[in-house]
Amino acid sequence: MSQVKQVGLLAAGCQPWNKDVCAASEDRFAYCATLAIYVYQLDHRYNEFKLRAIMSEHKKTITAISWCPHNPEVFASASADNLLIIWNVAEQKIVARLDNTKGIPASLSWCWNAGDGVAFVSHRGPLYLWAISGLDAGVTIHKEAHSFLSDICLFRWHPVKKGKVVFGHTDGSLSIFQPGSKNQKHVLRPESLEGTDEEDPVTALEWDPLSTDYLLVANQHNGIRMVDSEGLTCVTTFSFPSSAASVQCLAWVPSAPGMFITGDSQVGVLRIWNVSRSTPLDNFKLKKTGFHALHVLNSPPAKKSLSSISPTKSHYTSSTSEAVPPPTLSQNQAFSLPPGHAVCCFMDGGVGLYDMGAKKWDFLRDLGHVETIFDCKFKPDDPNLLATASFDGTIKVWDINTLTAVYTSPGNEGVVYSLSWAPGDLNCIAGATSRNGAFIWDVKKGKMITRFNEHGNHGIFCIAWSHKDSKRIATCSGDGFCIIRTIDGRVLHKYKHPAAVFGCDWSQNNKDMIATGCEDKNVRVYYLATSSDQPLKVFTGHLAKVFHVRWSPLREGILCSGSDDGTVRIWDYTQDACINVLSGHTAPVRGLMWNTEVPYLLTSGSWDYTIKVWDTRDGTCLDTCYDHGADVYGLTCHPSRPFTMASCSRDSTVRLWSLTPLIAPLLVNVLADHSWDDIIGNTDRAMVPGATPLLCGKVSRDIKQELDKLSSEVRVKKLRWFSECFSPPGGSHNLWDLVSVINGQDDSLLPQSYGKGIMHMKHLVRFKTSEAQELTIVKMSKFGGGIGAPSKEERLRDAAEIHLRLGQIQRYCELMVELGEWDKALSVAPGVSIKYWKKLMQRRADQLMQEENHDVIPYCIATGDVRKLVNFFTARGQLNEALLVAQGACEGNIHVPQTACNLCCSRLLQCVCKELAEWYFQDGRAVLAACCHLAVDNTELAMASLIRGNELELAVCVGLVLGESANQATHYVLELLARKYMTTPTCFPSVGSRDLAADLLQMIPDNEVLLAKLCAFYPGSSSEIDQIHEKCGLPSLEECQALAESAVSEGDIFNAVKYYLMSPEPEAALLVGIAHVKEQLSDSDWTVDSVHPILDLLGYIRTDRLILAKFTEARSELLILSGYIGALLAIRRQYSSIVPALYEYTRQFEAPYTPPSEAQKAEHAHLLDRLQEEPLRGLEGPDYVTGSNLPSHSDVQVSCFTGLRIQGPVFFLEDGKSAISLNDALMWAKVNPFSPLGTGVRLNPF
């Protein structure tokens, strides 16, 4: 099992260069970044679209995609390297490929009604037809569609008329071909172009689905026309409200015959049209940047129901996204808005799914990079902000908790190769470009404040702001120079190299020392305190150019370098020597990152698409990550969150990783309250080969220093601070804030960020009221550059909405009046008083809107119909809004009718919180699910969420702090954690793992049976086994033998099995235990709980004994019984995905399968009656770990349970080949300890 976990993904945006880069089919849609195709699919349970796959086989820019009209599982893509690929979406694999398209395919389309055929065209033709399969497989040329006089922009097959096709040209003309008719080339140019040489490219082209001859055409300057392809006439010319408007894309709305939509090219205005009118029915301004592509889903998502709901995701819309809802229809009341969902792609890379009927975004992915991301760095004073530099010419700053962009650099800088944050809190980023020199961007002010041009037009491959001296910046370039200058541009040093310089890095221990990587295969070290321009050291050994170099932050004089020879070399400056060569990558190495706490951990990223984590003490590769789909360029982590890593790639994504599993025993030492010597040490101790990992960095020392100052709550703070240090982003801080609230912490000690996350219900109304007041009085920020800086009107509107949901009706009315929306104010004013309503009527003036808005929300608030309003919000998936209303009602802010009671409101609140938690859980965010439960004091379900998400170490830390209310769950988690270390050496030798397991079990009261299981399972010599018995306070081997025999004579089967397992002859337990279980099963009133304790004990028999040939029969019986009872336990826990596999598992040891008889079916029903209630509340339902919903590019693994592709983390069984999902492995191990392969080996996926 992989040690490194993928925990987050920043998806790319849609490329704005080619036309056909957006496609949809049934419940999926796809768009193209430059080198990858992103496929989103509807999650039917929550009725929302989620990223399901990233296809990145293309090595050059993708030029077009097209979904197969006959098969929703298949689509085609083309790229600038003359490559055409046919994909199977469900299996995420290539079905066919055409490697030489004889020109770059500019447009691509499946041949309607022609089976498996794809047509493609480049520039001026010809049109090629590729039959993928069948007798006529191969490429042919369309007989007439060639020798055009103008380049082709795009083409479209007629969806009904077989063989009919239209081409749009850059000169504004159309060419139409259909079998049996005269071909028409370069016809129907806009009238204003006739007789001129001017060009007006066709930007969009779609056949009317209700006609065989009519066609919608958009030209860049001459707007939209409906033309008759038979009569070659213009039927309708559509008029725009402004002469400045121009159409970039258009699409028919399948659910509304005669209706179509268009997207403007300059501004993000979506227009709704009907063919019977020449002017638009409505206009929505969705963004400030123009449209690039549009596609309407054929089968829009059904309305959400109360039983299947999801919360409103905070879109964190950017400054280019309009916050106001679009206007309602006024003069066009005869028309209604079409029900439909439009996939919208914008020129800035933004992608969204817009619900035209509800006038809201169902999904918005704003401001993603559309090209290779070359570098990424965390902000020095904020581990939540990550900056990325891209080929697309921008630097973006992301909030990694919400995975959204919060700042983007102004303009386009060409290609940005490298970035470096200013030290501390200076809020500036230095960037290096391919042709435009280097620059300093003031992030908060949103402008470039300095530019450096000393390298001329040569590309600058690396820029590094000094960690220790904020006035110095280094750059290295293709001109062979590494230049050190001050931030005001004064050059301090110019170090000449014999070839291009690709990388440089400041020493973190000596402010005057810098290392460089050069094309001449050498690493150089320079000392700035001297006037010499010669290097102090030159390290040779690489067999190809050196790219990046990195100094170790923990070991003075140690640095590493990555090379095109595929190796990473470790150099010791003090010894003038290479002390290790890390070999394993099969392509050039680019990304390099030392861990800031564990001195021997080094991570590298390569053009072989992988990330490797190394133990540099002996050169061992600890883990390899295959999830990126292209070259890996940048790696980074933040010192205060040292085990969360970000990576960036040519696949245009940024991925977040947790390295904590590599050093998980360290956290166990913390929660088991071991001495500091087991947690923190010096680098000399940590670097001893085979030594257990120790923390040696600044963060761990700072934590210890702060703890030493405390006189109370030392254990609580220790658990929290180390847990936050080890945990990836995604809710751990939020979780600990809620734990503090539940434990009675003073509200004044809550951090400022608390109000932005999931709050405890007792704070929700108060914090939201404060937020509303702040929105009302705070003026708009004077500086731009930030994404999402709202106008005063937007702030007032946001404040009004919060006041409304809190039941503060009069304040809502006053704010709506200030905004000029009198109709809304008047509709709820009677909820204050009739007198107030009449007063508002007098102030109405002439500012009422032309059409009354039938908005249910104000009426429900005014009448106190809370349940209806909660149902209204939940049906729309707005669970956070429902939560506000339910809490407002609980606190009495909403005047509910006398018939409703506080108890009903409280139940409603609990129900909404549970729904919200389940949505987070199913989205792979177990920590935030736990936060939702803690917000209403439900510690049981909070702990259950962490357990089901396999956040075991975090669950123990939280459970220990919560105390008695979480004890039962904490003890269960401690048992699972002990199993983890009982059966796997991890980073520790086996004795260390054994002792860790014992320490964990000794934290549980009444732990004798649990310790007995540990002792039973531990293999070793007699003296070693006696030592562990003594450590656990249990009898010796010989004493256990005697106690077992005594228990047998007394008929005490449980103790007989227990002591036999710990004796020199553990196999004796098999005979006694299995005989007892079989006897129990023959009894008519047996239950699962009456036989499971013995089977559970037998599951800890030493593996080396169980797999012996002489115990084959007993082993088979044990595995059958374990699988049989495990299946019943799985049914009880609702582990539906593994129940069939468990039943199948028991059959592999039996006779051939025969269909069940009626009597057997009745017996099965009777079996279900033998299940008692699950002792731990909340554990029912499937496990779902972080990353389960994140697409991976690793080799596609098929589950040996289902035969289907595994989504999310994969768990390999002991043969190294068979695979199941990690979620299935966790559930299996909780109900049946033995591997599904029937070998008798225990499963350990924890």
Describe this structure in words.
It is built from 30 helices and 58 strands. It is an alpha+beta fold. The longest helix has 21 residues, at 902-922. Residues 303-334, 779-787, 845-855 and 985-989 have low confidence and may be disordered. WD repeats lie at residues 55-97, 366-408, 539-581, 582-624.
Number of helices: 30
Q: What is the number of beta strands?
A: 58
How far apart, in Å, are the first and last alpha carbons?
10 Å
- Order of neighbouring strands in the sheet with most strands: 1-56-55-54
Strand count, sense and closure of the main sheet? 4 strands, antiparallel
Oligomeric grouping of the chains: single chain
The backbone outline, from C-alpha atoms, is globular
Low-pLDDT windows of residues: 303-334, 779-787, 845-855, 985-989
- Class computed from helices, strands and strand pairing: alpha+beta
Strand portion, in percent? Answer: 25-35%
- Based on CA atoms alone, the radius of gyration comes out at 33 Å
Please give the share of residues in helix: 25-40%
Task: Kindly report the average pLDDT value.
Answer: 86
Essential attributes:
58 strands, 4-stranded antiparallel beta sheet, 27% helix
Concise summary:
The chain is of the alpha+beta class.
